[in-house]
Task: inverse folding
């Protein structure tokens, strides 16, 4: 178990037109939720939503208003015309944290997934909530958890007003 602050809450949001319509089952959202539980979070979701910027923005704003510590989205970060998760996220973010999104892309590229650099995912904060966009694949989610796992305890502590470690 990590040094995650007590009662840390996370929300998983899956952005997918086909999963939202029931055409196929969301696979990446449950993997992401299980990974967050493994890190010690109380997890809500996955909430499956269509690739609609307004609808995704509403879900993200509700999470910020509820002071969820971490919101991880999966899907909608590619180059397809329907991929709008980064646009919806930017509407909500107050401060971007580009190093997180860059680390996610770099990790994939360095671990044999050259297409990881095509992800347009963004990361940042709104209020005391960290929001990070992840790819819509189970492999991308697992890679992202490898990157985020060591960071999230510190991020949650910082957003709750904690001091930097000495």
Result:
């Amino acid at each position: 178990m990590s040094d995650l602050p007590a009662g840390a809450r996370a929300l998983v949001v899956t952005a997918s037109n086909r999963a939202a319509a029931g055409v196929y089952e969301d696979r990446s959202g449950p993997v992401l939720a299980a990974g967050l539980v493994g890190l010690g979070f109380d997890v809500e979701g996955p909430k499956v939503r269509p690739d609609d910027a307004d609808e995704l923005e509403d879900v993200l704003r509700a999470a910020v208003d509820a002071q969820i510590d971490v919101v991880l989205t999966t899907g909608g970060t590619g180059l397809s015309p329907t991929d709008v998760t980064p646009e919806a996220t930017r509407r909500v973010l107050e401060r971007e944290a580009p190093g997180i999104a860059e680390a996610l892309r770099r990790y994939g590229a360095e671990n044999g997934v050259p297409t990881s650099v095509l992800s347009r995912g963004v990361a940042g904060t709104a209020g005391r909530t960290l929001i990070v966009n992840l790819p819509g694949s189970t492999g991308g989610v697992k890679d992202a958890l490898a990157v985020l796992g060591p960071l999230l305890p510190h991020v949650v502590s910082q957003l709750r007003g904690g001091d930097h470690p000495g």
Remarks:
- The chain has a mean pLDDT of 95.
